[in-house]
Amino acid sequence: PSCFGYPLSIFFIVVNEFCERFSAYGMRAVLVLYFKYFLQWDDNLSTAIYHTFVALCYLTPILGALIADSWLGKFKTIVSLSIVYTIGQAITSVSSINDLTDHNRDGSPDNVSVHIALSMIGLILIALGTGGIKPCVAAFGGDQFEDDQEKQRTRFFSIFYLSINAGSLLSTIITPILRAQECGIHSKQRCYPLAFGVPAALMAVALVVFVIGSRMYKKVQPQGNVMIQVAKCIGFAIKNRFRHRSKEFPKREHWLDWATEKYDKRLIAQTKMVLKVLFLYIPLPMFWALFDQQGSRWTLQATTMDGDFGAMQLQPDQMQTVNPILIIIMVPVVDAVVYPLIKKCKLNFTPLRKITVGMFLASLAFVAAALLQVQIDKTLPVFPEAGQSQIKIINLGTDVATVQFEPQLQSVNVTPMGSTGYMTFETSQLQFLNVTSGNKTTTTVTEFLGGNRHTLEVKNTATGIVAEWLLDYVTSKPEQGNNLIRFINNWPDTINVTMGDRYFGTLMPLSASNYTLFPGGRKDKITATINSNRCSVTPETLGFGSAYTIVINRCTGETLDITYSEDIPPNTVHMAWQIPQYFILTCAEVVFSVTGLEFSYSQAPSNMKAVLQAGWLLTVAVGNIIVLIVAGASKLSKQWAEYVLFAALLLVVCIIFAVMAFFYTYVDPNEIEAQLDEEEKKQVKKEQDVDEKQAEADSQM
Fold it and tell me: Domain count of the chain?
């Protein structure tokens, strides 16, 4: 059965691919944040495990192709590995359920190793599944067409590529929204089970859709795997060359010609072409090393930025959607506009030149990321070192307060209802503080802890100056763009405070609540209850990554009068500043990735496509391993320096590749095949002639 001239079975395959990509990319989008905030790993370990996982996903396709071509056939391989995949996603989803081991119900898992073990098992199964079916699905789609449907088949591959990007685009938007929800049985936290569970459900849908179409598919029997033959041929040539290494054996034109004793000319000629392309692949992994950091380092960079886009609040892991959006726009634009323009300018933009330009652009994108990182670093607050203390004064009274840090360190004036920033002192030098307000003076002291921040509340009351110390345990910026908020009760009565759905408890006069974490960019209503009167106010938006002390002063009518004191400034560098680096990197991907596959296919015989596909995916895997090695070996403490290091490495590789490309001669596999056909015909004719002559000679006897 067909529809619009396409086999009907194609639609099942495209839907399956869409769901599978949604599932894979959705899970990858939140993965690095899951490692960091749920499993509590630091940036470096999270980045390392993320890239190990991606590398595994690109190593397993070779396994998938072998199973499909030599043993099960594509259909059975896709079905059986999809089942493994779905199970893996379900396990990962379960591993992120906080209540699984949270027996004391404090909102963090009691036994993290259970979660780590489960998620690692899940991720290994996912890598097997997603990688194993990767080479099969596209090829299985191609199998559905008859030989005379060349045009439809080409169109199918572009629809297929679009369905990959549509799947990844939607999931990179939706999964982070699911992650940002609050869920949990006993305590609320970020909803990772939902963020992993929805992709798992979609994968199950993909599997069902694929199986429903079973009757309509053309199923090609497994033909044996070309990769194995090529490997055997190369192995035999090397062994044979080694055996005949002494001078008395004549040299052969190419080292692969040593395989002629056992393998036919055609296979050897094809293998030569493949090796020529694979040799060019050697520098390519460096490109992927940079490209795949969008999901790790760049996402972590976004967590220190401001995601306020007016009407909407972007989550850090949603910035990755810039890439698929730009791909969907750029692929047609580059094909229809940019390349024709370059042609008009009489420039010969060969595939290898395109790949070189792609590498250069990716290197530029990382320079842009480094420049941005320098700007972000400037906005980060300074926290006290080990031997230092930081002190901040909040004046809750209606008179100016003067605070003298003794012995004669410095003195500050604090306006009524105002506060200072944090001032830094050497802990060993600070002894006590003298506070003067109105016409009263008092001396106050606390145990100053090195490496900590302290807040001093002062208030001039009828009975004298009240001075209360608070220890601020916060010594780093809130993660994930969250905000920290605490309240001070500047009221003669005891009050109950809530903000949104969080209860801050009962506050005595002049006492303070603990800091509580809120998702960034929200405006939650603040309500205070005194005796039985309720007063409320909607605060100004507190940005991303900030910490505030909110002082509750009084209630007029039903409106609460509050003042803000900023403890940690919000992220000020806007996430939109990441767009330039994403744009440059996407341009790089368009000229590099699309061209790379096209070039490989044009330079090798048709039956060798599987080998090249495997080689291409291998470059991605090796690229992710490079990230592990470079990030592990370089002891760079500054993130911008690491970006510059990667940019420099890729630039060097780009120059090496340009030299290799310069010496490459393009081949036309069809011509070579035609020559082989000619030679074979001649050979056959020769043998026939010999046979005929032999027959004539026999008859004359």
Answer: 3
Same domain, 92 and 217: yes
| Residues 524, 513: Cα–Cα separation, whole Å | 17
Q: Note the pLDDT tens digit of each residue in 558-581.
A: 888 999 999 999 888 999 999 999
What are the distances in angstroms from CA 587 to CA 176, 374, 654? 25, 24, 16
Report pLDDT digits (tens) over 93-106. Answer: 999 998 888 888 77
Residues 105 and 197 reside in one and the same domain: yes
Is 420 within 8 Å of 412 (Cβ atoms)? yes
Q: Which domain holds residue 468?
A: 388-568
Count CB neighbours of 690 within 10 A: 10
Give dist(CA 385, CA 426) in Å, integer.
9
- Any idea what DSSP says for residue 256? G
Q: Is the pLDDT of residue 157 over 80?
A: no
Q: Which residues of 271-292 are buried (b: 16+ CB within 10 A; e: fewer)?
A: bebbbebbebbebbbbbbbbbb
Residue 594 tokens, joined: 């699309």
Strand, helix or coil for residue 544: coil
Closest of 78, 93, 66, 434 to residue 231, by C-alpha: 66
Domain's final residue, options 201, 223, 245 = 223
CATH of the domain at 630: 1.20.1250.20
Whether residues 419 and 499 share a domain: the answer is yes
The whole model's pTM is what? 0.79
Name which of 178, 73, 81 is nearest 130 in CA terms.
81
CATH number of the domain to which 467 belongs: 2.60.40.2890
pLDDT band at 75 (very low <50, low <70, confident <90, very high): very high
Rounded CA separation 289/295 (Å): 11
CA 635 distance to own-chain centroid: 22
* 7 and 79, same domain (yes or no): yes
pLDDT of residue 386: 85
